Amino acid sequence: MTRFRHLTRALRLALGSALLLGGVAALAAPPSSPTPATTPATTPAPKPATALQAGIADSDGLRVRLPDVEVLDQDGRKRRFARDLVAGKRVAINFIFTSCTTICSPLSATFKAMDEELRRRAGPDVHFISVSVDPLTDTPEELRKFGRKFEAGANWTFVTGTRTSIDAILKAFDVGSGSPEDHSPMVWLGHEPSQRWVRTYGLASPKLLVDRLASLDKPAPKAAAGGAPEPDAAALAQMRQMASQAAGRAGVQQAAPGTRGAEYFTNLPLVTQDRPKVRFYDDLIRDRVVLITSFYASCKDVCSPVTHNLAKVQELLAEDIKTPVRLVSITTDTGFDTPEVLREYAQRHNARPGWSFVTGKKENVDWVLHKLGLYNEKPEQHTAILWVGNDRTGAWLKLHALAPPETIVAAVRKVL
């Protein structure tokens, strides 16, 4: 059982996506967890990530087996998910929970803006579907109140139901069913009659999303040379604001017995942009104050903004904090992110000495990410979580990595 499961739900929700030391306290690996190279493999390693990245990706390779499970809408009506909500329709589907304090409101605001854009240009009929990742809390009444905040119309359905039914939907759309706070900001766009689906970054420009949604019954476009689009500036500003609000409520937690040292964090061999071999705990964490996050170099949404943000943090730390602080950024895409790629990435983002960009054998990196609560099967599913920790004292904080640099520095002071 993970240590943060012992925290009250109120505390977890107050922190939003910044759950306190959730992964660092995963005392027992779940059956689907990756297996380190130094341990006999008892479960298969996660499949390599597909070419689908976090921006708008071509949909021809995506197939969705829609579960026709019974769900409840915001008015308490029983509906069949596939037959009543998706079949024969052009749809946009996101994943939210009503007590979310971070990305759910921006995701919902994007749906509202998409609906307005479609009406402005007299676009095709679209059915918007928001599936709760917290069905035990999100009753139809709670979903109805949440929908009113965004003036949801008759073409926008909020979905809850039994845990079994919702998990079937999450599995069909490749959405993790772990902690609600750790769900990724993905949106699926679909045209069910032609079986065309696109998975996209949910905070992209509403106009861009509408363009792609409206074209799903037409031949698939060729991928742009520049890759996936950058996130919308307004959406990033919203994320920064949410991150700042959540960070202000974050409190220090002490690591529980059994969740400290090399025995927990592991000492698996890894590499960095400038060192051919490091031991994760001994070389990057032991007796240090650390900032730890995940990313991947080809990311086209939040990774670059996060890394630029942390570069500003590193500058402020050098000016204001006498205690050395090590930054550790762990790739979620070991197949692409070689030391050479990470070295170029670090230089491009003005990383100073004392900042390690980490890669290595996939099974080793995956296990380390799992221990930190940062593991996902696909690179684009990573979350912008930032650990602030003092290994010597066992004090830890968890923030959103887009929190203001001054706020992150203040968090470092709290763990000293």
Structure description:
Helix content is 32%, strand content 18%. By secondary structure, the protein is α/β, with parallel strands linked by helices. It has two domains: 3-48 and 239-415, 3-Layer(aba) Sandwich (Glutaredoxin), CATH 3.40.30.10; 70-227, Glutaredoxin (3-Layer(aba) Sandwich). Strand 3, helix 3 and strand 4 (127-132) form a beta-alpha-beta unit.
Brief account:
This protein is of the alpha/beta class and 416 residues long. It has helices at 9-15, 81-86, 104-120, 140-149, 163-172, 206-214, 233-247, 262-265, 280-285, 303-320, 339-348, 362-371, 405-415; strands at residues 70-72, 78-80, 90-96, 127-132, 156-159, 186-191, 196-201, 253-254, 269-272, 278-279, 289-295, 325-331, 355-359, 385-390, 395-400. The chain folds into 2 domains: 3-48 and 239-415, Glutaredoxin (3-Layer(aba) Sandwich); 70-227, Glutaredoxin.
Topology of this structure?
Blueprint: H1 9-15, E1 70-72, E2 78-80, H2 81-86, E3 90-96, H3 104-120, E4 127-132, H4 140-149, E5 156-159, H5 163-172, E6 186-191, E7 196-201, H6 206-214, H7 233-247, E8 253-254, H8 262-265, E9 269-272, E10 278-279, H9 280-285, E11 289-295, H10 303-320, E12 325-331, H11 339-348, E13 355-359, H12 362-371, E14 385-390, E15 395-400, H13 405-415
Parallel strand pairs: 3-4, 4-5, 11-12, 12-13
Antiparallel strand pairs: 1-2, 3-6, 6-7, 8-15, 9-10, 9-13, 11-14, 14-15
Helix pairs in contact: 3-6, 10-13
Strand order across the largest sheet: 8-15-14-11-12-13-9-10
What gap, in angstroms, lies between the N and C termini?
28 Å
Q: What is the percentage of strand-forming residues? A: 15-25%
What is the count of β-strands?
15
What is the CATH architecture descriptor of the largest domain?
A: 3-Layer(aba) Sandwich
Q: What is the overall number of helices?
A: 13
Radius of gyration over C-alpha positions, nearest whole angstrom: 21 Å
CATH topological fold name of the largest domain: Glutaredoxin
- Fraction of residues in helix: 25-40%
Largest sheet: 8 strands, mixed
Question: SSE string, helix = H, strand = E?
Answer: HEEHEHEHEHEEHHEHEEHEHEHEHEEH
Quick one: overall form?
A: elongated
Structural class: alpha/beta
> CATH superfamily assignment of the largest domain?
Glutaredoxin
Task: Give the rounded overall mean pLDDT.
Answer: 80
Domain count: the total is: 2
The top-level CATH class of the largest domain is Alpha Beta
Show unreliable segments.
1-33, 37-60, 223-229
